[in-house]
Amino acid sequence: MMASVETYLAVRRAVGFTLSKTEYLLRSFVNFATDRKETHIRTATAIDWAAKRNQLRNGTRVTRPFVVSLNTSA
Fold it and tell me: What burial class does residue 4 get, using C-beta atoms within 10 Å of its C-beta: 0-12 exposed, 13-18 middle, 19+ buried?
């Protein structure tokens, strides 16, 4: 999953986005999912991660565009 995060960030930065907070949050999410031994992004994991951070709105605001980009790049 981390390779996908790197690609996503590189593409977004290439068109001018800074993404420092987004990078931190996505890496945090991927580490959380990896600690759960997950190899695919799961909705329940994203919600659990965001709830654990007590930032459900911000967490899903960051993870959703990333997940959408994975689905459209396949």
Answer: middle
Using CA atoms, how far residue 23 sits from 8, 13, 58, in Å, is 10, 11, 13
Under 8 Å between Cβ of 65 and 27: no
Cα 10 off chain centre by: 14
Q: What is the pTM of this model?
A: 0.76
Q: Which residues contact 55 (CB under 8 A, 6 or more apart)?
A: none
Which strand (E) or helix (H) includes residue 21? helix 20-35
Q: Please report the pLDDT score of residue 74 as a whole number.
A: 47
